From TrEMBL:
Transmembrane segments: none annotated. Pfam families: Response_reg (PF00072). PANTHER family: STRESS RESPONSE REGULATOR PROTEIN 1, TWO-COMPONENT RESPONSE REGULATOR. PROSITE patterns: RESPONSE_REGULATORY. This is Two-component system nitrogen regulation response regulator NtrX. It comes from Salipiger aestuarii.
Amino acid sequence: MTHHPDVLVVDDDPALRDIMGAACAALGHPAALAADGAGALDLLARIVTIRLALVDVVLGAGATGLALAADIRTLHPDVEVVLLSGLGGSIDAASGGDALILAKPLPLDKLRAVLDGKHRGG
């Protein structure tokens, strides 16, 4: 049986991208993987089952997850974006728009809550 990805992981670091993808799969959420914004938007256009994008804030080569998050919200408003940052407190929460910004590394219990949609209060 083929499981279609319901999560997109976007990180320019191949090791981190692979680890996050494997963790998502182990928690029952197959993930599509992209190294940059262009790859992410291509996958979102082709894989209609994706409902959540986990996006690194810094994507290398001057690209930002913040810009990608804005593109995803515009082109795929049904896909939730969660930004991941290894930069600690140096990211202004307002700059992420309505995207949640979480610190990397993301503990498995927090990842599970995000994947299961239990990460937002209320």
